[in-house]
Specification:
With 143 residues, this protein is mainly alpha-helical. It contains 5 helices and no strands.
């Protein structure tokens, strides 16, 4: 029963995870709202800020505040494996985000860069969806 009370705030945390995905889609739409061979500087800046605050910040929160408690609670090998898998995925996603951030930082993008950005953003979106599903599988089993 103590574990249940300890992890109760995860209900709100899981909703936040899904909200991040919705915000990602909104940023994607803003980036590519035009058919022109450029990306809006304002949309690029907003997307970089979104990555920093809501994606990387979300991962940092989990690493600092969620995972240590789960591992210390001794909830079993399945939970420890799931946490390790999610942490590994955080590293992969962080690498993708950093690559996209570097591309978004370019003053001007060629048509090829915009095409690559579109593909990379779509791939990141799918990866974030898979990641969210992994977390949603783990967290509800704890509340």
């Amino acid at each position: 029963m103590e574990v249940h009370r300890t992890h109760r705030p995860l209900d709100k945390f899981i909703l936040k995870d899904d909200e991040v995905l919705l915000q990602f889609v909104a940023n994607y739409d803003r980036l590519f709202a035009s058919n022109q061979a450029r990306v809006s500087a304002r949309a690029a800046m907003a997307t970089k800020q979104f990555f920093k605050q809501h994606v990387l910040g979300h991962f940092a929160y989990e690493e600092r505040h969620i995972f240590p408690g789960l591992l210390q609670a001794g909830l079993g090998a399945d939970v420890a494996r799931a946490v390790a898998e999610i942490r590994k995925d955080h590293q992969a996603l962080s690498k993708e985000v950093k690559q996209l951030t570097a591309l978004l930082a370019a003053a001007e993008l060629s048509r090829a860069d915009v095409a690559n950005l579109r593909v990379a953003m779509a791939a990141l979106g799918k990866h974030l969806e898979r990641h969210s599903a992994m977390e949603n599988k783990l967290f509800p089993s704890l509340v």
